[in-house]
Every structure is written in C-alpha cells, then in structure tokens.
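Fold this complex.
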Amino acid sequence: MKKISRRSFLKTNLTAAVAAAAAGPLFTACSNAANVNRKTSLGSGKMKMSFRGVDLQLRHTFTISGFSRDVTPNIQVRLEYDGVVGYGEGGLPPYMTGQNVQTASEFLSKINLDQFSNPFLVEDILRYVDGIAPGMTCAKSAFDIALHDLIGKLVGQPCHRLFGYNPEKTPNTCYTIGIDTEEVVRQKTLEAAPYKILKVKLGVDEKTDKMLVNTVRSVSDKPMVVDANQGWKDKHLALDMICWLKEQGIMMVEQPMPKTVFDDMAWVTAHSPLPTFADESCQRLVDVPKLHGVFTGINLKLIKCSGLHEARQMIATAEALGMKVMIGCTTESSCAISAAAQIAPRMEYADLDGPLLITNDMFDGIKFIDGKITLNDRPGIGAELMTPWE
Amino acid sequence: MKKISRRSFLKTNLTAAVAAAAAGPLFTACSNAANVNRKTSLGSGKMKMSFRGVDLQLRHTFTISGFSRDVTPNIQVRLEYDGVVGYGEGGLPPYMTGQNVQTASEFLSKINLDQFSNPFLVEDILRYVDGIAPGMTCAKSAFDIALHDLIGKLVGQPCHRLFGYNPEKTPNTCYTIGIDTEEVVRQKTLEAAPYKILKVKLGVDEKTDKMLVNTVRSVSDKPMVVDANQGWKDKHLALDMICWLKEQGIMMVEQPMPKTVFDDMAWVTAHSPLPTFADESCQRLVDVPKLHGVFTGINLKLIKCSGLHEARQMIATAEALGMKVMIGCTTESSCAISAAAQIAPRMEYADLDGPLLITNDMFDGIKFIDGKITLNDRPGIGAELMTPWE
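Structure:
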C-alpha cells in the first residue's frame, strides 16, 4: 500500500476538494478524495443535550374512541456534538398513560451522556437510555430521533440513505378523519382533497361506525383504511364489521379488538377478507413474534417503540415472520414526522399526517406532494428548526 | 432559513475545508462545515462490477466430520462507483453444495447494475440480486460485502460505526482445531497460544470426540467451545455428550444434531447445561423464528445468509426472540473476515480465524491482538487489497 505523509495527505485532499467543488457536488470531494482508505475521525468532545415541552395546536378538535382534544403536548430534544446539532421529538398524547411533559422531562434529565465518547455508539447509548426507566417511550423516541439526526448530519447523509431505502418508494400518507358528527366528518373529508388515502377512526358502536364510513363514502370514493382502536369487543362483531367494510371498498383494518385479545383476534385474521394490523397490541420489538398468526401486520409508531433504532429491528423481525409493516404517528410536528418518514419507503401504509393537523409547526421537513410522502436530501432526518430553540 | 447562493455556498465550504484541514481531522471539514443542513449529493455514473476466483492455501489440511481439504476456493467482487472501489469476498467450501467458482461466476455475471442510479439503494439492489437465483449465498455475500464496503467508503465511515456498534466490544476470536490425530491436535493446540478461546470440531463418534477434547485439554485449560457439525444422531447421545463437555469446562455447543431434527433438538436444548447454537439449521432470515425454543442461539455466517444486510436483520430477529448470536466463517481472507468483524461487537462468540489458517491473504484488514478481534477506523469493511486486482 502506498504510504503518504500527513502533509501530502492534506495537500492532496485540499486540491481534490477545490477541484471537486469547482466541478460538482461537495460529496465527491468529501468521500472520494478524502475518505477512501484513510482513517476516519470521530470528532471530539462530549454530547450536550437539552429538551423542552411544546404544545402543538390542533386545527380541529380530535376524537378517537375515548378521547377528545384541541392540543397535544410534545417533548423535543436537542443534541449537540462537535458543533453539529440534531433534533428529536415525541408526541405525548393522553393515551400514552403516565407520559407527559413533566414525566418526560424528568426522564430526560436522568440521561448522562458524559460516559459516551461519541454519538456513533448507538447500541450502547440507546440500551443505556432504555434501561434508565421502563416505559417513557415518547421521551426515548425523542432522544433516539435526535441521535439519528445528529449522526446523519455528522456523516453528511440523510437517514433514509444510511438505512438503504429508495426514497422514491414512499407511500401516500393516509389522512385521518376522527370520530365526529356527520357534518364535521363530511367537511373533513372534503378538506382532505389533496390526499389519496383516507383513514377513518371507528370503534364507537356498529351504528356510529357505519354512519362514519357512509358519511365519508357519500362525498369520496378514495381508497380508505380504518382504525377500530380496539373498539369491537366480540370476534363475530369484528368479523362482521370487517366483511361490511370490505364491501365499502376499505383496504385494511387496524386493531379491531382489545389489545390483549389474541386468540379471538387470530380467529378474526384467519377469516378476515382484509389484512389486519396491530396497533395497541404492538408496542415494542419483543411484541412482534407474539403477533405472528394474530395479525397480518404491525403498525409502528416511534413513540410506542422508543424510536427509529428499535423500529428498524421490528421491520427486520416482521420480515422474518412474513408480516407486513405500516407506520403511524400522533400529533407531531415535521420533526418527528420527518424522522418517521425516513423508514416510510419500507411501509405498506403510512399514516404521517401529524403536521397537517397542527397550526404551529416549528420545523420545515419532509413534504406531502399530491399526498405522497416526499423525502428530501438533507442530512439526518431532513427537518430544520425554523424558530429559535429556547 | 438563511438562503445562500451556490457561489457563496462553495466559498463557505472551501474556506471551512481549508481551515479545518489545517487544524485537524478532515472529518470535521466534511461533516460539520459542509454537510449540515445542506443538500447531500449521491455522486453520479453507474456502478461497475468485476469478480474473480481465488484459491486460498491452507496452513494445515482441514478436517471436519465428512470433509478434508488443503485449499479453499473463493469468489471476490470489486464494485466501483464514482471513482471509489469496494471489495467483497465469499468462501466456497465444499459443504456449500453446488457453489463453486464457476457457478458463483455465472451467478455474478447475471447481475445488471445499470438499472440502479446509485449504490445507496441497498434494499432494492440486494432484493434484486437475491431474486436472480435461489441459493448462491456465497456469491451473494461477496456482492453484499463489496456494496457495504463501497458505501462505507463513499460516506467515509467504517461499517461498524454506521451500524452503531462499539468497536471496543468485540469478543476474542475462537481458534479452530479440526478433526485430526492426537499428535496433530496437540500441535495445533500449542500453535493456538496467542488465542484465548479454542473451538474444537467434533461429531465423529463418542470415542473420537472424547479423545479430541481430552487431547486439547491435556495441553490447554483455555475456554473452549465445540462444534458437533450435526454429528450426534440421537438426542440422548447428544445430551450425554453435552453433559460430559460441561464437565470438561466447555462453554457452548454448536449444532449437536442433524439440521432438520427440531423436536429432539428442542428437547436437548431444554435439558442442556450448556447453550446450544444453530449452525447448519440456521441459514437465512426466515429460519430464525423457527429456531426459537430449539436452540439457545444462532451462528451467523455471511456465506450462509447472503451477507451483512441480512445478517443484521437476523440479529434483530434474534433479539426480538431473546436468542443469542454468534458469528462464524469459513476459510476466507481478511476481506470477508473484516466484513464479518464489523458486526462482531454484537456477538456472544466469534469464530473469525479464517485469515489465520491461510498462507496467501491478499487483504490487510482487521487484526487479532492477543486474540481479540480488533477493528480499525478505515471506511467500509476496513480491508485494503495489497496486490493488484487482475
């Protein structure tokens, strides 16, 4: 192997950088001239973390079976290393019991990153963070996203590229229509004009559920999926509803039955004319093998599973089991949504309409172009903070 | 967001690159100044692939139950993109039925990479390559390794860092002692002085197996694992042998019974005082869930599973199932071994002694320092070709 001195090494790199920058993308200069067959540096110093609670304002009062709200609290994380800053976020919807801005902040304040020499030690860092306390997956996910954003920026590549996904293969986002009166449902359906797939929340009772679907169908013949949010307590009702939904052109049903009802749910899936996806039944990695034969697929949400790192392990496990994957979200800004979108190319369905449902998005991130999730080429999660971090 | 013209963008980057290169590692210039919140480029052009067959010369005639050899043929892949070159390799041991230099070359010659705009489309590319023909995992792995090496070099980071592993957490490599006469076994054990863990190949018959272990133990009290290579056909014999091995201070047993014997193997594992690892029973990702409850863990070999990408999915699936992971190899140079070592930090055991057993290693790669697998900071798989590619 040819050996060169540090002096000629630097000279070669700088010459190449100047030539490449004049000729084309800087990436060429960084990777080809400088990084091949050289030692790579990790930067230096310690990681610094800060976090804050933020209230996201909803465009419409949002209702799913059991809850109604106008605002969603949210935890955001800022992680700095070597002058580079990564951001992360986790929604804190009321159904994530015990997780709110106060408990999330308490959790994050326990994280001591001084013990880690650099942010690339992802497995060690996330194992440590996960072990600090059980649960707290919204805060864990906010931290995980900030770490991925930071690493992508340090490496100079979008996460989706580091994950090996084809950014063109993202699905259309579902646009969610909550449980509401006929008039509001009709109005929301019309507002969803730019979006190609509707997701209707069900699970109230048979009559209301049918009203909701019929109301949407009265003004739209778009592809539709439904989320029953554990609403159908009896397996025969669940199957009857699914068969009826199939006739209305629905494509998929999420969480038809209560989350711990596995045997009946396996029976429903075995007889169902539509694919079934686990949402509440599927929280973290260890849940995935248990759902094999119970559901057709799983709905990943970063706030459930603790972030991108574990989500990717769940995707691998689902692939091993022949199960489908989709991704969902809660009310989140373009920070968490851009992070979730990094794995969207691998998803059968994606329900990432969070930023569309709020009025105070402080991040500029991935876009929905004619409803299609559209990734960008920015490093990390592809989101930029548009207002000062306070 | 502040907007800057292309002209001032280039100027800023170059100034930063010059300043940073003068001050310290180029990484700082590449990542911090240039890549943060900028569009990242993919390079341009097409990937170009070539490949060749190579014979690796063994130091000792190697015997495992059923086979004996002095040479191992090997397929090596060279993948070029945008002036950057990645290398990959797959051993072609005789037990990989139907895989030899000719069939591997025929397989690789079918790969048409013109349809892919860049090497980062890992999921698409590997899915396509895997779909060209069933089996052919040695060639597929050689290709997968070259792709990972190329990407690491394009990004300017070692694969282990892109995978999020702590390079300090690599295990000691096992040093393999094949089936041979007492004298040769004793000699090989003494030659293994620098290595901390011995792996003894068994599976001949009870008497020979005990002779092999006793011979090693007569000159060494090092930690030992054994590989029975499917040799024990009866579950009671298997369990008796494992109990006896436990008394000799053996730590783990690989593939005690024939690869398709699952029920009896589950019984053995349930009663075994030692962890059991699947080798021949575990080829690819879809096998992993089927081995839950049958073995304690799985032995990954890149030539079995088609490469690093699938190996990482298998690690995730094993984690979901609470199963342990180890990594093995065949007779391979420092190319394939350096690739396998990228995931070694996650492994319970690592049997990566391939380069130690050959006399014509044409790559300089990861090292064994006092027996410990020692990763380097080079981008990609960390191996450099030391002789011309012909």
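Chain A touches chain B through 72 residues (CB under 8 Å).
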